[in-house]
Task: structure prediction
Amino acid sequence: MSREPYLLPNGRVLRYTFRERLVHWLAGVSYVYLLLTGLAFWSPWLFWIAVVLGSPTISRAFHPWIGIVFLIAVCLMYSMWAAQMGETSADKAWWQAIGHYIRNEDRQVPSADRFNPGQKLLFWGFFWNAIVLLLSGLILWFPQSIPWNLRFLHLAAVLIHPISTLLTIALFIIHVYMGTAMERGAFGSVIRGDVSRAWADTHHHSWYQQLLRDSARK
Amino acid sequence: METSRREFFKIAAVGGAAATVFGFDLKPAYAQLKELKIARATETRSTCPYCAVGCGVLIYTIGDRAKNVTPQVIHVEGDPDHPTNRGTLCPKGSSLEQDMLNPRRLTKPQVRRPGATDWEDISWNDALNEIAHWTKKTRDATFVEKDANGRTVNRCEGISFIGGCTDTNEFNYLVVKTMRSLGLVYLENQARV
Amino acid sequence: MSQASTEIIRISAHAGPVPGAGIDREFQVCKLVDTTTCIGCKACEVACLEWNGYPFSETTFANTYQTMPETTWNYWNLIKFNEHERADGSLMLLMRKDQCMHCEDPGCLAACPADGAIVQYANGIVDFQEAHCIGCGYCISGCPFNIPRFSPAARKVFKCTLCNDRVSQGLEPACIKACPTGCLHFGTKTEMKELAETRAQQLRDQSGFPDAGVYDPAGVSGTHVIYVLHDAKNPEAYGGLPKDPHIPWAVQLWKKPLKWIGNLGIIAGVVGVFVHYLRFGPKVVREDELRSHGEIK
Amino acid sequence: MTNGWIDIKNTDMMLIMGGNPAENHPCGFKWAMEAKRNRNAKLISIDPRFTRTSATADLFLQIRAGTDIAFLGGLVRYAIENNRIAKEYLIHYTNAAFIVKEGFKLPEDGLYSGFDSASGTYDPSTWNYQEGGDWSGKADTHASPAHPAASPSPPKLPPNVAYDLSLEHPRCVFQLLKQQYSRYTPETVERITGIPKEQFLKAADLFTSVRKDGDMKKVSTIIYAVGWTQHTFGTQIIRTAAIIQLLLGNVGRAGGGVNALRGHSNIQGATDMAGLFDSLPGYLKAPIPADTDLATYLKRITPTASKPSPWDSMNYYSNTPKFAVSLLKAMYGAAATKENGFAFDYLPKFDHDCSWTHIWDDMYNGRVKGMMAFGMNGVMIGPDTTKNINALKQADWLVVGEIYPDETSEFWRAPGITAEEQKTIHTTVYRLPCAGFAEKDGSMTNSARWVTWKYAAVPPPGEARLDQDIVAQIFLRVQDLYRKEGGKFPDPILNLSWAYADSAHPALSQVAMEVNGKALADLKDEKTGQVIKAGQQLPGFAWLKDDGTTMCGNWIYCGMWTEAGAQIQRRGTEDPSGLGVYPNWAWSWPANRRVLYNRASCNPEGRPWDPERKQVWWNEAARTWAGVDVPDFKPDSPPSDHMGPFIMNPEGVGRLFAPIGVLADGPFPEHYEPFESPTPNLLHPEQSNNPLVKKFQTPYDKLGKPDEFSIVCTTYRLTEQYHYWTKNNPMNVQLIPEPFVEIPVELAEENGIRGTDRIKVISARGTYIAKAFVTRRLKPMMIDGKKVYQIGLPIHQGFRGITEDEGRDARTPANLLTPTVADPNAHTPESKGFLVRIEKV
Result:
């Protein structure tokens, strides 16, 4: 864990460092671009998105390159957060209490560490899907280089790429919803980086308590 | 003088790529059907120069035979009226356009002097004069008027003419006329081989 | 050939009505390739290249008369040569003109995500529209015949157009016109089918090919290029003509059920979180608790 | 072709041998496919290789190159043994019933009677018909008159031939034919050709099935090309085919005939126009020293009728003097007078073989000092490229008219000739840029004898000039020199008729009109009263005169450009008979006749053999021959006159037996081995080869022995390429980019060769390098119990061309390998079937 002072002098708590925020938005923006261009090719009714984003040809040409950007961002996230995304014994209890969490009966939900199990799911979901999307995307990127007798790869990619995308979309919807509407203050945490102590205590009680303990030890 | 094949490919490839630079298409958006490239071209009826089926070919050239146009070949296809080929052509006939637009064609008279290791250009006038002199010199030197038995034979033994088999009847007739009059007996043709 | 036959009846990835849909099809065009009278002369290859004006490419000898292993983005028409031994030990040199089959139910069109990049005309021609092609290559996965070819230079996919520029002006395709032996024939689908069946019958009755037949695969609802084969039971022998071609199941799954499931899922997700918000609202930060602990003022 | 391209669609059976029309004449081959599709015609392909023609065949047999006479002789035997012959046709339309002179001997030992080993020639005086009348029932012994000693003057055919219509006389042509081919049993055929007996019998049965039970309705055709001609017995192979077609009654009939597929667009016209040392336009024989004046010459070349007395013979060549005099008038105009024998002395008289192979030999030996080559790549065409290159080194000058840089004009820098050596080569070479086909107008004659006019589409590029202008300009300058300086016998040069409006640029339309001929005085047809005024174009060769009142550059082309206009420019697409005659499309020699000898398509009573394929017939009411084609016959000769249908022969009938040295090497074809062969001649090992073939003596004229060179090699063209021309065309180069050698899988395995490996093909004369094409289309053969391999290589690559100039290819012309030995009749060299060995590079 970083040595940065998490309990800021102004009475707020540093939730995400600058590097983390940068990487998050690198991933976020690239994902959105991928999502929009992808959706344009997914449905004729959304094809206009590709037109708006330059031209369909540009969209097709940039999509895989932005995919690489997204993958880089995901890898950076992995290097930053993977250690904190391990499943703990407390997580199990959290999942059992997921119904309470959904109904906002937060008192009955076990307290969460820096990342709650939902966030961990988001992380790993994006991470593994990014890998899958990369592999299937590479095949789709260079369709002419797949020999005819390895055609099944191409066909598999045709199916896997959208399925994998759909999974990320599910995660993405929840992520955006929770980060904006549901947990007020979360959005600010990836913009400015800090949250209020109350916010930290509410949503990541264990983490906050640990921060307090660390600070007391000092 | 001779554009190499690789250069030729390069030129062609660049030309093809220019229309679509990195996906930006310069063509109008809703041009669904290509224009017929021979729509108003001039059609000339010719005969394929290759095998002896004698297929009728149509040579399409730019312009409408107006005086101010130098025709240029743009396409060749079979003559559908010709009873033998009925518009069909083999791979050789189908590629005749490349025979006419070929950068390898000879376009200047050349001479290789005795002992030379390369060609040099020569004017038509000089070339024809020199050839005429050679012809007369060799004919006069090798002409036999009477054979050992005193019979008139009037032949030139020192010159040979060999002709190809893709030139016209009229050309062949002129060759026979002129060469026999020079006294040639070594007069042969692709027809032999 | 009437202009009506070039009305567009299907458009790839097109939202909304198709201009020519439901048009009264006067007739559909069809190329008949009688492999039993093909002499592998490649006149069709040359005629195709000459008409379409593509540049020449370097080839190398590969122990065959075949010009190149496969068609390329600028070489749409290739005769495939195969030495084939019959059961009685006699040799056959099978020669088959390979090109776009112009499927009635085109896999390329089904797979294409670009609006208007692939269209099908009322006469049956499946045509790639360069101007609309985005170069994604999905058509390659949709095609059961291995036909669409990606050009890295142009970043677009190309294939045989069935010379729609000629056909729309009342001419036959360039390959058809050139074919010296009449192994290629052009006309309406109905008549070509009849001609093909007659020839197949003749091969069965007169020429000792009991399995001769017509290749007009039902898996893609028939094609606008049909073959007469000496042995219709073994189309693979003719340079890998698929026995039972159809739009790949992956493409079908993707374009039909998966699309609907996905669309529903996405809509359900968006609606779901909205409903959730209405029902439960945002999570509340427990400021009161902290305040009581004196951690915040 | 006796028939034509389109006429092939009328056939029921095709024997394609010595040719590969699917590859070399694809657009003509369509009519073979039409016959298959529309008539269920069968196609038999016999070739050293399984070709693309074979791919469409009903039956393919692999034959050893150069054993075609053995196969066809076997076919003759099979047809006779199984009575698959057209008896009535045979008796009335061939010389089957003619009785041959006593003293004639068949070549059981490889030699006919009359061979003189000192000169290596035959005295053909015994190859003649017996004089006499109806000999049926007459025994041989007491009928034969004393045999006269061979006369010094050339033998002549008797006017009144002895005959036996029962065909039983032991010396009648039919019996001799039967005897000649009795040796060609299926077993012998198998031993020589390598075709297993059962396969041979299958083919023989299939081909002769058209005459099953004597039915005359069906027709079969034989189609060949240079696979037959390029042998030291090439003419005799074609003779064998003719014999078969006469035996089966297929000549003159729609869908029948013996059909030579010419390999070049105007090879037919070039032959007709006599660009050949031994003939003059219209197949007139070129004069020889013995022709001391016009009368002697005309007497020698004008045949007299020779037939059984009750029969009639038109002997059309009795008109030869008219053709010859009209030609001389065309050439020398006013200078050709009755008094000077129409300037007969202006024509050169040849005294020895001046044919293709001799040109190069005589050039090598210093006799020929200058050469003009127009559109003719002599170095590549060979045979023996090395010899031709070395011959050119001896020449003083060479003029090449070409459209691309070619090997002949650059012989002095052929691969292997160093810059040092180039300095020692004293030949002056002029390379003149000529015009391509699209830049010239003029007429060309296709294989079906159709003379078609073409129009110029574009001007020649750069400084290139029209070929006819170049020849005219050279000639006019030579003429000028003789006019100014004098010289040896200038008369023919100064007096050559050159009445073209622009003498240095002769318009080909004017030349064509001269070739057609015109009246020089008012002419009147006594019968019809029709008059042709002086100066008018002649409507046909029947109008030609031997008194100098007509001129005609080529009598067989008379009728192509008449007062009614250019017949060769006609474009009528109607074909009322459906037989593919197209009488109003262009014009066909002779007299716009599309199928030669078409009188033979009717029975002796003048009714078509097959009422469904009616070409001509006798119209009793009008007392004339009528038809959808122009009858090749005397139009008012009723069947009762029994005029023979083969009006160009003095006999009036087809020749199963070719008498008095019509062919130098025998009246019947006999199997001889190619000069390089893996086996001695199994019929007569002591006389393996054609005894009349001349052997050359230069250091390059080496022949290989089978112990050193055990593989039979043949050369051929590919459909994608045309000779040495399309190697300059990027499209054709893309189709066939590199030279290759087709070798059997078994041979490849024995030598550890895989497809695309580079290999050397070595003959006694040179080495050819190319990639191996390992294929199952060539199989090892058993020749008299010995395994023999055949390989084949295309001829198209040389040392100038697109890929050659890039250095991608071995720079070896295929004709480095071929030997300089030629057919004694047609003088065509033997490029098909020679010996090589192969090595991996």
Chain A touches chain C through 50 residues (CB under 8 Å). The radius of gyration of chain A is 20 Å. The mean pLDDT of chain A is 91. DSSP finds ten helices and two strands in chain A.
